[in-house]
Amino acid sequence: MTLTHLNPESLHRSPVFSQGVQVEGAGRLVVVGGQNGVDATGAVVGTDLGTQSVQALRNVLAVLGEAGAAQENVIRLTVYLVGPADATAAYAAAQEVWGAHPTAVTVLQVAGLARPDCLVEVEALAHVPSGS
């Protein structure tokens, strides 16, 4: 599988995300359902967006690991923030947990999530090459 990050010169460049990602090659598709900032017991960690974002992204990585995938395989993230919210803390969390693996990302502000004490939910789409 070949991932090509698409960042045309005519668009804004960010160290946190790519404008698009092209996937070529055979393999498996991994869909990670919405992950909140909860620990293994289901308890929400922290009351702030940054702390919950770090945990939500760690949860995404745990699901990917279960499928034999890693963040390098992620082709898209969707982040839902309970709004209005300043996404700065979520972007800082992405830098801390996600590191230098920018991917295509959509960030949405929503009125609320299924759990009222959650401030963020993260979905992921990944492609794992055949034989991995």
Automatic annotation (TrEMBL):
<dbReference type="Pfam" id="PF01042">
    <property type="entry name" value="Ribonuc_L-PSP"/>
</dbReference>
<dbReference type="InterPro" id="IPR035959">
    <property type="entry name" value="RutC-like_sf"/>
</dbReference>
<protein>
    <submittedName>
        <fullName>RidA family protein</fullName>
    </submittedName>
</protein>
<dbReference type="InterPro" id="IPR006175">
    <property type="entry name" value="YjgF/YER057c/UK114"/>
</dbReference>
